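S.,

As promised, the GDP-alpha-D-glucose run. Input:
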Amino acid sequence: GTERPTIGEGVEVVVVSNRQPYRHSWGDNGIEVDRPTGGLTAGLDTVVRRIEGSWIAWGDGDADAEAVDEHDRVSVPPDAEDGYPLRRVWLTEDQVDGYYYGFSNRVLWPICHGALTRVHSESEYWEAYEAVNERFADAVGERVGRGDVVWLQDYHFGLLPQMLRSRVPEDVLVTHFWHIPWPGWDTFRACPHGSEVLRGLLGNDLFVVHTERYRQNFLDCVEAAIPDAVVDRAAGRVFHEDGVTTVEAYPLGVDTERILELATDGDADERWRRIRSRYGIGEGVRVGVGVDRLDYTKGIPQRIDAVERLLERHPECRGTFTLVQIGSESRSRIPAYRELQTAVVEGVNRVNARFRTDDWRPIVYTTDRLSDRELYTLYRNADVGVVSPIRDGMNLVAQEYVAAQADGNGVLVLSRQAGAHDLIGEDAVSITPQDTDEFAGALHAALTMPEERRRERMGALVETCRSFDTEVWIEDVLGSVARLREEGHGG
Ligand code: GDG
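Predicted complex:
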């Protein structure tokens, strides 16, 4: 729909995220603009334009900070009328190390994904995390006025909601969307400074996670760690000394219409032929697709093992099936991420060396970034979508694969550990990625499933994904915000 979500006349929504939606830098022709990878920033960009909001984010990249800062109003193209103010918070190298590579990604990320053996904490991490949350709190404080709404994104800002309380007018409503899992108490109790993070988050009027499971986990953690908080399970509300926090589960979806359009528009068939030829995929070879940031939570080595097992057990798949794996580099300053990158290359080389022939490879692996159009074309034409995280808040790739199925005959193989499985698992082929035999069996089942069955299941998947499209998510979140404002929450 084109309806504009309204939350009140003259109310400004201020989005705060770690990543900025646009990166500006000096180029040969003056200021150049590009967009970092990520479904979140792209989706929210549309929203912020539509509701005439503004955005605050870390000004990462190699931009000449001072010069670019003059161009505070984002306009892409440069004179677009629906640009919006983008304020960047500039951080020192040490702050980035401690806040982003430290507490955010070596403590909170592994804790929330249940990867306790990966947690590494230094006191500098926490100090930087606090300091950067303060910097953002100041920036938000300068921006918002009476009755505005602050919409925080993700685990980089665990302390910010509470910090805002002393910096913004009482009637400002603060809401936060947590994109990664919220773990059970037995896991979260291992989090250094965990109760400080929980108290920070209780500064929100509205705290939103993807699934009902995460919502219950969050309430469990509050009950266990914050003795003075009273949890009303039925209402999903936490009462504490500073007020009331409502906790909701609204799964983030994808822009199903746009994905379908880009997967099919123009010379879509020619595009697919070019992609096949670029990756050396011959005629008659069936294709599986995997798309991930190179992260240890995504189960990429397990996927490679499963392809190897498939080819061992089902020799007829040799020469007739190829997995295309797109891996985008991520967080490379953290050793675990560099180790993963090496392990993926080694795994791919091992399986390819073992089975490849002159004109066929089992796995095509690339770290090149695909354009949205190319990516959605690949999804559309791939026979199997392979999504195998060890743990994942949602996983948008699973939904994007479904949304791109213009021909309705693909099969989704999906890990039980992805948040997406709670929503669309029923019509996918479910796997536990560490169970290599089961995973290989699922790939084989997907490749041999009769067409009628595939269409039936994909039809159901498409319908479900449409029912929680990005548009629905925005309406849910902003709808809750509007209701809370009517009830007089905020402050
Ligand atoms: C976090 C949570 C949650 C990747 N390579 C290319 C490309 N991508 C795009 C995908 C997708 C996005 O990046 C990745 O999103 P995911 O949801 O899979 O995973 P995270 O980055 O870990 O995101 C996750 C999400 O937040 C949202 O709440 O689902 O659980 O971990 O959109 O398409 N896009 C293009 N070319 C690439 O090469 N165009």
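The pocket of GDP-alpha-D-glucose is lined by residues 37-40, 179-180, 252, 291, 293, 326, 328, 369-372, 375, 392-397, 400 (CB under 6 Å). The chain has 18 helices and 18 strands.

- D.
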